[in-house]
Amino acid sequence: MRARTYSPLPWTLNTSLFRPLHHRTLLSHSSRHLLRLQHPFYLKMSLHDYPNIQTPASCYVDFCLVPVGTGNVSVANEVAEVQRLLKASGLKHTMHSAGTTVEGPWDEVMKVIGQAHAVVHQEGAKRVQTSMRAGTRTDKKQTAEDKVKKVEGMLSKD
Questions:
Q1: Where is the composition biased (Basic and acidic residues) (predicted)?
Q2: Could you tell me if 61 and 132 are in contact, meaning their C-beta atoms sit under 8 angstroms apart?
């Protein structure tokens, strides 16, 4: 006799988007029958044309680029080269003690971060690690400076 495995939920979902819609099913572990559902969630997902989804119009990205294996504990030279690149890009950017915030169109921001990797590799780093946090909004335009000013305004009332 085969051992039956049970999900912590009474059902599991077959979400393969590569199968025709009629093959996407809700599997019931409580019976031997398949329950077929035409759930709006599946229909919405199946209608997306993923390769043609647009990137957000604008974003801000805070990133920290770290050259690895340079033999030097200082990264000032690499940071200076990245700052020169950012200045040449024309994108709004703000350097701080633990990284840089860049603002602009999504594709341009991501491109310049990739170019920053290339610049640091050209400086001799064999490996580059980057941590990033990205933010986007669709309801209004808001810069990183606007966000800081809002909080500073609240604090000035204290």
A1: 136-158
A2: yes
pLDDT at 51: 84
Rounded CA gap, 117 and 125, in Å? 9
3 band by pLDDT with thresholds 50, 70 and 90: low
The 10s digit of each residue's pLDDT in 117-145 is 999 999 999 999 999 999 999 999 888 89
CATH classification of 59-137, choosing from 1.10.357.10, 3.30.70.930, 3.40.50.2300, 3.40.30.10? 3.30.70.930
Tokens standing for residue 27: 């599997």
CB 21 within 8 A of CB 46: yes
